[in-house]
Amino acid sequence: MKQVEITPEIIQLTRFGLVNCFLVHEDDGLTLVDTGLPGSADKLFQAALSLNRSLRRIVLTHAHMDHVGSLDALSFRLIGIEVAIGRRESRLLTRDFHTEPSEPANKVKGSFSKVETIPSVLLTDGEIYGSLQVIATPGHTPGHLSFLDTRSGTVIAGDALTAVGGLRVSGDGPLIFPLANFATWHKPTAIESARKIAALEPKKIVVGHGKPVMENATRTLKEAIRHAE
């Protein structure tokens, strides 16, 4: 599992060159953002050990299999670890795919694995979780969350954005990486969420799939939004 330092506080972990998770330094240890594909638990655990820090909490951007695939294995190994997900997204962990009256009635798409772990924290837009500001960014899924590390101005965007072949809004990915498009619930909502991220003027953007945007992140995101519109 490849490790890349995005900022002194954020380490990107990449498996198979395509699936990213993130370790975020906190005063009491590490927060793991997403758990990757099934079979990633040992590698994620070893990555944390290599930093000489303990895993204290897991926070999930959304419930697709490639983001929660190793959740059960990690929570079984780390008994009592705090697990957080968006309040709306938590329904997808239980395979409740019904939309709410206020939401577009599009079918929820993507691969969802069976998850036994019950989250201990349900997050809502705008709150602070550790050093991360919670940003509701629905579109890829109805309850998708992104996170802003205010220490560095870095947004961890999950699948609200992709960056394989350049930064794109979920649902508007290039032909070389169509998977996120197929799994996106409602593209117009994803575009609105991208605008919400851009309004924060992030200095760096990291995503669930693809390379980090280390320079001119806000400008690059605005270009991606124009492309998606």
Which fold name fills CATH's third level, the topology?
Metallo-beta-lactamase, Chain A
* Largest sheet, spatial ordering of strands: 1-2-3-4-5-6-7
In percent, how much strand structure appears in the residues?
25-35%
Query: Measured on Cα atoms, how large is the radius of gyration?
Result: 16 Å
Q: Describe the main β-sheet briefly.
A: 7 strands, mixed
Number of structural units classed as domains: 1
Oligomer: single chain
Uncertain runs: none
- Give the proportion of residues in helices: 10-25%
Question: What name goes with the CATH superfamily?
Answer: Ribonuclease Z/Hydroxyacylglutathione hydrolase-like
- The pLDDT mean sits at 96
Helix and strand pattern: EEEEHEHHEHEEEEEEEHHEH
Q: How does this model look, in words?
A:
The radius of gyration is 16 Å and the shape is globular. The chain has 7 helices and 14 strands. It has a 7-stranded mixed β-sheet with strand order 1-2-3-4-5-6-7, with helices on one face. The mean pLDDT is 96. It has helices at 41-50, 65-68, 71-77, 90-93, 179-182, 187-199, 217-228; strands at residues 2-7, 10-15, 19-26, 29-33, 55-59, 82-86, 121-123, 128-129, 132-136, 145-149, 154-156, 161-162, 168-169, 204-206. It has a single domain, classed as Ribonuclease Z/Hydroxyacylglutathione hydrolase-like (Metallo-beta-lactamase, Chain A, 4-Layer Sandwich). It is an alpha/beta fold. Helices cover 24% and strands 26% of the residues. The longest helix has 13 residues, at 187-199. α6 packs antiparallel against α7 (217-228).
